[in-house]
Amino acid sequence: MDNNQRSKSDPNEQLRLDATRRVVAKEKFRNHLLTYLAVVGLQVAVWLAILLSSGEALYFWPIWVAFGWGIGLFFEYQQAYAPSQPTASEHEQAVEQEMRRMSSNC
Predict the structure, then answer these.
(1) Cα(73)–Cα(33) distance, rounded to whole angstroms?
(2) CB contact at 8 A, 21 and 82
(3) Residue 47 to residue 61: CA distance in whole angstroms
């Protein structure tokens, strides 16, 4: 029996697979966030050291890295924490329910 047939016959197995993917996505996001904070923090520290040693107001260049990388981080957050898409069986149930509703209105 292949995975597709098994997942159709056992909804708990599909739920477990979805939950496992979600946990992995959350772990990846957490690791990515920590790396982001460390790198951006280091860049701000370098910028601050240059600012203090020169005594002049300098352009805040770390914002470009923080902003660009932050966009990717935002999408990774969405993948990890946003509500999941309905499964195929949930979609089919919704379609059948809508068909019953439409036929009762005729």
Answers:
(1) 7
(2) no
(3) 8
Longest dimension (CA), the chain: 79
Tokens, residue 88: 């195929």
Q: Which amino acid is at 19?
A: A
Return the closest-CA partner of residue 65 out of 46, 81, 51.
46
Please give the pLDDT value at position 75. 94
Report residue 18 CA to chain centroid gap: 14
Q: Do residues 22 and 84 make contact, with C-beta atoms less than 8 angstroms apart?
A: yes
Q: Give me 101's structure tokens.
A: 């509703």
Tell me the pLDDT tens digit for each residue of 17-74: 888 888 999 999 999 999 999 999 999 999 999 999 998 888 999 999 999 999 999 9
Return the domain boundaries, the chain.
10-82
Q: Which residues contact 11 (CB under 8 A, 6 or more apart)?
A: 89
